[in-house]
Amino acid sequence: MHPAPSVIIFSTFSGLGFGLLAWLGIGLPAVTGWVAFVFYVIAYLLAVGGLIASTFHLGHPERALKAFTQWRTSWLSREGWLAVLALLVMAVHGAGLVFFDQHWWPVGLIGAALSLGAVFSTSMIYAQLKAIPRWHQKLTPVNFLSLSIAGGALLAGQVTWAIVLLLVAGAVQLATWLIGDGAFARSGTNMASATRLGTIGKVRAFEPPHTGTNYLLREFVYVIGRKHSFKLRIIAIMLMAVVPVILLLLPFHHIEALLAVLSHLAGVLAARWLFFAEAEHVVGLYYGKR
Amino acid sequence: MTSLPQSTTRKLGLVIDLDTCVGCHACVISCKGWNTENYGAPLSDQSPYGADPSGTFLNRVHSYEVQPPEGQAQLVHFPKSCLHCEDAPCVTVCPTGASYKRVEDGIVLVNESDCIGCGLCAWACPYGAREMDQVEKVMKKCTLCVDRIYNENIPEVDRIPTCVRTCPAGARHFGDLGDPDSDVSVLVAERGGMDLMPEQGTKPVNKYLPPRPKDTLGDIDILAPFLAPIDAEPKGFLGWLDKALEKL
Description:
The complex is a heterodimer. By secondary structure, chain A is mainly α. Helices cover about 65% and strands about 0% of the residues of chain A. Chain A has a single domain, classed as Up-down Bundle (Formate dehydrogenase/DMSO reductase fold), CATH 1.20.1630.10. In chain B, the strands form 5 sheets. In chain B, strands 10-1-11 form a 3-stranded mixed sheet. In chain B, strands 2-3 form a two-stranded antiparallel sheet. In chain B, strands 4-5 form a two-stranded antiparallel sheet. The model of chain B has no long low-confidence stretch (mean pLDDT about 95). The longest helix of chain B is centred in the N-terminal third of the chain and has 12 residues. The chains are: A mainly alpha, B alpha+beta. Chains A and B meet through helix 3, helix 8, strand 1 and helix 9 of A and strand 3, strand 4, strand 5, helix 3 and strand 8 of B. Strand 1 of chain A pairs antiparallel with strand 4 of chain B, so a sheet runs across the interface.
């Protein structure tokens, strides 16, 4: 799959932002006044910034409001609803903390659930797609949610939780890669099932439909990044989990905390780039490619 | 609405005969022509006369080489367009309701004025039947020539999809695959019509007829023994030359 920067930035930043909102919703850290204001500004910049980035890949962003109509069937529509509802409910909760020194528990808990719901629906946009076997697995939502919650803990300054959750998220990331590696073969879709010519003999793509390239090949058959995927996986896992955990284990300092956040962010961006670049769409089979 | 209908009154679709298709691409050209000049946004080209031409097509013809365990390889031309699936994954993922399947005839269509160009339906389709037009920025797909098949302004003989009307080999058939007595359903039953990627669970309406088995010649070639190849072992001067060259 073509790794479009807008979607990578969207899913990474809004995942982090909603993760932080979820922690703020359950009252960790228990902040009020100006400190709470700063935490909320960071969370909203990440979440809303990501959402705005996601509209950059739309052909007709001016019609984006229509995307709220099909929540009954479409995960993309549900994501829109959950994201907006989470931002609205958490704004009420944040107003309570900043202006009234009040932590309204029910509002916070509902906001936290909606925030994680938004991340879950983002992951389901990908996990629902049977045509992309690497994404069509149960670990895809676990991967997105664990990264969001761990990154949120890191931003919320919950050091103990962050150490544990970063290690969990790193382990889930490794499992997602390893299980994903065999997903295409396990899907049962291959040249024989795509053409149904396998009963005659071995099928090979002889001539493509056109001499030039097309939308399908540009969007779905992206092979450039795969040759470095092993190295990028190591870089991603080091930056997203190992380096932040080491920095958190050192005596606390604000510079180290900032470095841990930046390292985690870079690691998640690398992993998300791989999430797209490594994903193979079954349509590639019609072109004799993966 | 992007929920799929429980059932459709009819299941209009295509039957494509892989035994008959000669790979002339006439269906590709007529499809591009009709769907550029008629319903919806035209199918644009990018740099059509340049070094890297590319464009939107709703129908593309692939060619495959199939090598049986014994004997010669076969070449199979393979036209591919939207299969108008009963369980169309492209429809349910659409966030705006632009993508829909019609209850009256099962045709899967895009309402272009509602399409936000997110591309998710093209991701969901395992067949590569949907292409985002690079000029209009909306999703294009086969309409089964919905603007021909019900069009009373054109002669009755033309009220079929333009790809079917154009095919010089008669490799494409159009009809109601929901009616077991229709010509296309009978053809599918007789020839063992197939679904593409059945494991994807899309339940395509369009069917593909497999190439008929190649016939094999028995011992009917009575002249063959007399036409045996000339002695593989050269004699005389050529024999000497052969040996001399071997030794070098």
